[in-house]
Amino acid sequence: MNQQADISIIVPCYNSDRYLSACLHSLKAQKGPSLEMIFIDDGSQDSTGALLDAFAAEDARAKVLHIPNGGVSAARNRGLDLATGRYIAFVDADDALEENAMQLLHAQAMRTGAQIVSAAHAILDMDRSERIPVETEPVSQEPQGIVREIIHMHRIYNNIWNKLYDRTLFEDVRLDENVRIGEDALLNLRLFLRAGKVAYLSDITYVYRIHGSSAMAGVRSHSDAHQPMLRSMSRILLAEGVKERYFRDFLQTCVWIDEKERGIRACMQTFHEKVRPLVLEGIEKGRIDRQDRMLYSVVSGGFFPAFYVLMRVREKLTGKRWGIRR
Predict the structure, then answer these.
(1) Does residue 251 contact residue 292 with C-beta atoms inside 8 Å?
(2) Using an 8 Å Cβ cutoff, are 8 and 83 in contact?
(3) How large is the greatest C-alpha to C-alpha distance in the chain, in angstroms?
């Protein structure tokens, strides 16, 4: 009888042969906890499949599943279906782990009893061969506070590849296969809403490599690309019964994603049509937190565009920001 692995690492791969060798090398170098490496070849048309098969032939910890192309979320979900380890980790085929990544994450989970351990990461610009330091915003140790940060697109908590998860969290949770941008954040939103204890590791465990073929490289409209994510986020918050608790945060993020691309004036001109219905969707007025009731009245009463312009003017005069903007 095979002993259960400490960690199942799920690696979705699609036409990744240009970058895959560094990923495989970093996986092979991992020491410490016992690993199960699950590679999902998502219908690749280059030599990715052959490279994975060759790697698995040399490393008994690796298994490869070749499937028709269905997207990264579908590939990760297939990996979750196959995973048997006590913990789950995700790695993208064009990225790499630091040499002691799994050892550090596993030790932190064992030491703290956390169901989710998050860690710091570095960014490597492949086109410029430049390693970019990542600004680390303040981190929270409480799941409710982290949920707020996820809604605000926190650089640490939105990603799934810089974490170690207790596999029991995935019993009835999978990635949303209909969302192509922001699917990581949606998964983390659901997992942190149900996690008991969480932990943070300041060590860098992951190298996120950006290049011309990255997921966001060909996106023309930042705002439009994020709308499916925002709609799914609204549904998750409603299903979990917490949308009223995070009303202000969800409003701020919906506004900021649109404003970031189109500017304040254009964003406010279409606020009632584009943002307001989603923000108010499913909200029960009586469940709004006391400190947010006036803001809710401003939005529901149709006065938010004027209010928001005033808040942004106040920012320029006082330096006091209205909300969190990533």
Answers:
(1) no
(2) yes
(3) 69
Residue-wise pLDDT tens digits, 257-308: 999 999 999 999 999 999 999 999 999 999 999 999 999 999 999 999 999 9
pLDDT digits (tens, 9 = 90+) for 180-215: 999 999 999 999 999 999 999 999 999 999 977 655
Q: Give residue 102's pLDDT.
A: 98
Residue 124 is classified by DSSP as E
Nearest to 249 by CA among 136, 140, 318, 150: 150
* Residue 139: pLDDT over 80: no
In this structure, what are the phi and psi dihedrals at residue 96, rounded to the nearest 5 degrees? -150, 150
pLDDT, tens digit, 9 for 90 and up, residues 84-94? 999 999 999 99
Cα–Cα dist 262/220, whole Å: 12
For residue 182, which amino acid is it?
Answer: G
In the structure encoding, which two tokens stand for residue 272, read together? 């009632």
pLDDT > 90 fraction of the chain, expressed in percent and rounded: 84
Provide the pLDDT for residue 1: 43
Which SS3 state, helix, strand or coil, does residue 183 take? helix
Q: How far apart are CA 6 and CA 110, in angstroms?
A: 11
* Phi, psi for 284 (deg, rounded to 5): -105, 115
Helical residues (DSSP H) of 64-178, grouped into ranges:
72-82, 101-112, 143-151
Distance CA 296, CA 285 (A): 8
State the DSSP string of 6-22: SEEEEEEESS-TTTHHH
Residue written as token pair 């380890």: 85
CB 14 within 8 A of CB 47: no
How many helices, marked H, and strands, marked E, lie in the chain? Answer: 11, 9
Q: Where are the beta strands (DSSP E) in the chain?
A: 7-13, 35-42, 62-67, 87-90, 96-97, 116-125, 130-132, 163-166, 198-210
Which of these, 106, 91, 109, 86, lies nearest to 32 by C-alpha position?
106
Q: Within 13 Å and on the Cβ side, how many CA atoms surround 239?
A: 11
Query: What average pLDDT does the structure give for the chain?
Result: 93
Return the bridge partners of 65, or none: 40
